[in-house]
Amino acid sequence: MTKNRRIFTTVLRLLALAATVSATIVMVTSHDSTNVLNLTFKAKYNHSPAFTYFVIVEAIISGYNLIILLLSSKGSLWRMVIILDVVAALLLTSSMSAALAIAQVGKEGNTHAGWLPICGQVSKFCNHVTGALVAGILAAMFYFVLNLLTLYNVLNPLFVVKPNQLPWEF
Amino acid sequence: MTKNRRIFTTVLRLLALAATVSATIVMVTSHDSTNVLNLTFKAKYNHSPAFTYFVIVEAIISGYNLIILLLSSKGSLWRMVIILDVVAALLLTSSMSAALAIAQVGKEGNTHAGWLPICGQVSKFCNHVTGALVAGILAAMFYFVLNLLTLYNVLNPLFVVKPNQLPWEF
């Protein structure tokens, strides 16, 4: 059971790593340009603070995840890793939500604010951003499942272990 | 020590409740209108999906937090509450990040995308949104500290309890 759990955790980490690396690469390589009334209109990820934040977080979590995968899974560091995993999930969710909010305006616009959609003009850029966001959402989901699994095992909320065996109290 | 910890946790929950309730009320009551070229330009929170998502999450977490505060702190439900608290922190961080990303465009605009800032026209609306976002950021911070504190106590990452006293393994 413990061995299966460890394999499942490693698979989740590998999937999350693939997702964050893809999200970083696809977002960084997103650029397009178009001509509107003789003016060249360029689109690049670093024109938006939310997309820049997204790239920074995805890159940091890729590095963190790689380090954790390379560390021995039998070390006593693993209790700290559970807390760091929660922080990683918060960062991934935050950056993905901010990027998604901006991408939604880019695709749909906002008539009330007078913000026009830009995807018609720079569709190549929009496709890249969509791809990066799908990878970012998957990464956040993998980390969410990883956290739920680890916390469930640690906290034993459905009393598989008797309550008095737990070394902490509230 | 345990009593102090419980008092600190309750204070954090009360602060988070005050922050989420304030964020909900201040965001929902935010509206303003202005005339540009004989056209009335109205601003309201539900004109943006990110702000609507923010209000829904802040309201849900207010309700959740109130229920947890009213429950007895000695019940055995508290292990599940730790997991639910992590989910609450993820939701708060996600909605706050999305709303912040849109508010940044509202305040600064985005010259690359041709999105003009709107805060000059609807400053009353912008002030309300800023207030709601400050409350939302505080709520996410209180929940972050609450999670760190609880997980630290449960996981004991710096070995105050001997490792072999812990009922779980990796």
TrEMBL record, chains A, B:
All copies of domain Casparian strip membrane protein, residue ranges: 5-141
Topology relative to the membrane: Multi-pass membrane protein
Subcellular location: Cell membrane
InterPro entries: CASP/CASPL (IPR006459), CASP_dom (IPR006702), CASPL (IPR044173)
Keyword presence, DNA damage: no
GO CC, alphabetical: plasma membrane
Regions crossing the membrane: 50-71, 83-106, 132-155
Keyword terms of this UniProt record: Cell membrane, Membrane, Signal, Transmembrane, Transmembrane helix
Keyword check for rRNA processing: no
Pfam families assigned: CASP_dom
Signal sequence coordinates: 1-23
Major localisation: membrane
Similarity comment: family membership: Belongs to the Casparian strip membrane proteins (CASP) family.
Subunit structure: Homodimer and heterodimers.
Protein name: CASP-like protein
Organism expressing this protein natively: Malus baccata
